[in-house]
Amino acid sequence: MNDVFYCPDCSSKLEVISGCGSTSYFCNKCKKLISKTKIVPHEQLVTKIDEKAVKKLSSE
Ligand SMILES: [Zn+2]
What is the pLDDT of residues 11-58, one digit of tens each? Predict the structure, then answer.
């Protein structure tokens, strides 16, 4: 099963590039590699969106 990760900047799905023993993540929208420490797993992305929605609601 493949894990899906998202860009911390634009929340786009990242492309996984597996090399010799290491894995890289590339964002097609930002056209750049994302460090493994910065990638956002799906559960976290959902939480992020929820927080944003709550903030927006409370400010209106
Ligand atoms: Zn991006």
Answer: 999 999 888 888 899 999 999 999 989 999 988 887 877 888 888 888
Ligand 1 centre from 9 Cα, in Å? 5
Distance in angstroms (rounded) separating the CA atoms of residues 8 and 11: 6
**Dist. CA 1 → ligand 1 center (Å):** 23
Separation of CA 17 and ligand 1 centre (Å): 15
User: Is the predicted pLDDT of residue 3 greater than 60, yes or no?
Assistant: yes
Backbone angles phi, psi at 40, to 5 degrees: -115, 115
